[in-house]
Design brief:
This protein is an alpha+beta fold and about 150 residues long. Helices cover about 25% and strands about 50% of the residues. Strands 1-7-6-5-4-3-2 form a seven-stranded antiparallel β-sheet, covered by helices on one side. α1 crosses α3. It is globular.
Length: about 150
């Protein structure tokens, strides 16, 4: 059964600035601790990534996989697993909400992970939490220092 985790963080930047960093997949290895490689395979007519290949190392979960991205307006992006060696599911989203009149942004990261090999639910949830916590902390640091 797939696990689901969600967490939020407030970033001292406008939503557009946060989304710019989220959409810059080539730089993920610089700020997202678990993503070791990220290659955009296809783009939509607006130049946004549609499919991205990534190499993940999240301790208990290591994989080379491809995600398909769906962009909803300017404040949400979601993804679904296309192919993977180890994962059955790696689906999630970033949702941005303006705070303080748009000077700050609340970012909510939702993630569902499932693996093909037998693994204790406790270990899957811990890996999922590590991915989310590090991604949000890395995103905040990256946006606030750019």
């Amino acid at each position: 059964m797939a696990e689901h985790t969600s967490s939020s963080i407030t970033i001292d930047a406008a939503p557009a600035d946060v989304m710019e960093v989220i959409a810059d997949f080539d730089r993920y290895p610089e700020w997202s601790g678990e993503v070791k490689e990220a290659d955009i395979l296809t783009k939509d007519d607006r130049g946004r990534a549609e499919q991205v290949r990534m190499v993940l190392d999240a301790g208990a979960i290591k994989d080379d996989y491809t995600l398909a991205y769906t962009w909803t307006g300017e404040d949400e992006v979601s993804w679904a697993l296309v192919k993977s060696q180890m994962l059955r599911a790696l689906d999630g989203s970033y949702r941005l909400a303006p705070v303080d009149g748009g000077k700050r942004t609340e970012v909510t990261y939702q993630l569902t992970v499932d693996v093909k090999i037998p693994m204790l639910g406790m270990i899957k949830r811990k890996a999922e939490k590590v991915i989310i916590d590090r991604a949000l902390a890395g995103l905040k640091k990256r946006v606030e220092t750019v």
